[in-house]
Amino acid sequence: MSSHNMIEIRGLDSHYKGRQVLFNIGFAIPHKKVTVIMGRSGCGKTTLLRHLIGLKPSESGRVFVEGQDMGSFDEKGMANYRRRIGVLFQSGALFNSLTVSQNIAVPLKVHTRLSDETIRIMSLIKLHLVGLADFLDYMPSQLSGGMRKRAGLARALAMDPEILFVDEPSSGLDPITAAGLDDLILELRETLGMTIIVVTHELESAVKIADQMVVMDRGNLLAVGTPDEIRSSQDETVLRFLRREAEEQQVNTESYLSRLLGRQYKAGENSTRRQGGVR
Amino acid sequence: MIYLVRKLGAIALDLIEGLGRMGMFFFRVIRGVGRPPGKYLSTLKQVQFIGTKSFFVIGFTAAFTGMVLGLQGYYTLSKFGSEGLLGSAVGLSLIRELGPVLTALMVTGRAGSAMCAEIGIMRIEEQIDALECMAVDPHSYLITPKLIAGLIALPLLTAFCDVLGIFGGYLIGVQLLGVSGGAFMDGLTSSVVWDDVYMGIVKSFCFAVLMIWICTYKGYYAGLDEGNFGPEEVSWATTQAVVYASISILVSDYIITSILL
Ligand SMILES: Nc1ncnc2c1ncn2[C@@H]1O[C@H](COP(=O)(O)OP(=O)(O)OP(=O)(O)O)[C@@H](O)[C@H]1O
Ligand SMILES: [Mg+2]
């Protein structure tokens, strides 16, 4: 096992109630690099992330952290691993009974013996990073969706983690703020040497921040490589994904419409009605 | 036939698994007592939460229950010409039985359901997952303060309930029906002994544990069995929590009474 890899995934399958959603995923996440996971909605990115942070139990021999099998972690081993990671959930997952700064203070209060004043200053620094310094005492319900995401990121950074997992940081953000977050991610990698795993839909931002790109499709791994390698890929599905093309429509219109209407669709029926509507 | 056996087996296994999970849950909550962060503030907040949620309802219920006890007790006792025993009848039934049970049922309906919903929402919004990812034990962080608070608040509320109930009985018996006030108080003080108070306290501690345990457990595992996490799961969990907690309060009331009697 190469010492350059923080996390290694080998032949990972995943199921929800008997339905398989990940198929034989295998790749490595290098140390102190930004790995971007891309794929269409519902292809299993969040599920993969949940395996990597130990929220969904992995079989033994599937996920390795610095060569150690996560499947065999006991409670203590898992707790030790989790002290080293920071996670931004897709929903933000802020504690809605606490203010923004109290949210960020939670891990600091539990894991450190710092004074309240120090903790408050540290929260402020993290909020400053994500541009929310003015919203220290707001409740999560008073924030917009994008602000909640950024507050969640600030909380993920509270303990200065070695490994940072972010699930769609820029969904719901305007392009300027999103670009700011991209810069922040690169800065974290440069200055703190964080290993960062980002799930995103934005191709442009992925190419900008990724050292390694992972493309998934319906639970399968499609391609792994540097952004350049991915872009020069010959694989048809990868290319289609990059060109943002929709899947070829294999359903024919008639059967689709009869499914929608719940009965047999007769050609011509709809067109007459539409004419009537225009008039 | 084989289908039936298999079905029964599956139900039994589910039951055992559920009980085991409940046991583990309780163990983790207890273990959380000594874990950081300090729990004084969060426990106090929970005491306040339980208190403010239930204070007036309990006062109201207690006063009227006491008044009804006064009426019914007077009616029954006067048949034997022993109205003087009204004080001890009202006092004993409240302190031994009605006080702890009514308080626990009211707290379950008011604070227990709210706790279950709160934890359930944290579950479906991934807030509990977020805690775990910070290496913060959710049992210790979220549930332990609630359990300690329940153990503090329920005996206090029970005492409050007892006092108001006896006051209600006094009001009806003495002021309305003309039992002598001295006889009422004398009957009360001479018949209520430490054992009766002890029974009331034991009950309120047990009910506190049962109520908090069941309500928070139901919220914590809201939707986990079905594997989908939506608002319906939380409302379903809350309903179940109130029903199960109430039933187990009543059943354990019988058990504790039969043991201590
Ligand atoms: N709790 C769950 N129970 C059952 N199935 C689930 C659950 N969570 C996800 N799935 C299924 O797993 C598949 C992958 O879901 P996942 O959330 O990993 O997708 P995703 O790639 O993160 O999508 P998105 O980009 O929309 O967030 C989906 O088909 C989804 O239906
Ligand atoms: Mg997702």
Average pLDDT of chain B, rounded to a whole number, is 92
Number of strands of chain A: 10
What is the straight-line distance between the termini of chain A?
A: 71 Å
Structural class of chain B: mainly alpha
Residue windows where pLDDT falls under 50 for at least 5 positions of chain B:
none
The side-by-side strand order for the widest beta sheet of chain A comes to 6-7-8-3-9-10
How would you characterize the overall build of this protein?
The complex is a heterodimer of chains A (279) and B (261). The radius of gyration of chain A is 22 Å and the shape is globular. Chain A contains eleven helices and ten strands. By secondary structure, chain A is an alpha/beta fold. The longest helix of chain A has 18 residues, at 175-192. Chain A has helices at residues 45-52, 75-83, 100-111, 116-129, 145-156, 175-192, 203-209, 227-231, 236-242, 253-261, 269-278; strands spanning 5-16, 19-30, 34-39, 63-65, 68-69, 85-88, 163-167, 195-199, 212-217, 220-225. Chain A has a domain at 85-160. The N and C termini of chain B lie far apart (46 Å). Chain B is elongated, with a radius of gyration of 22 Å. The mean pLDDT of chain B is 92. Classes of the chains: A alpha/beta (279), B mainly alpha (261). Chain A binds chain B through residues 16-17, 53, 55, 79-80, 82-83, 85-87, 89, 91, 93-97, 106-107, 109-111, 155, 159, and chain B through 36-37, 118, 121-122, 125-127, 129-136, 141, 227. The structure holds adenosine-5'-triphosphate and magnesium ion. Adenosine-5'-triphosphate binds at residues 16, 21, 39, 41-47, 90 of chain A. Residues 16, 21, 39, 41-47, 90 of chain A line the site of adenosine-5'-triphosphate.
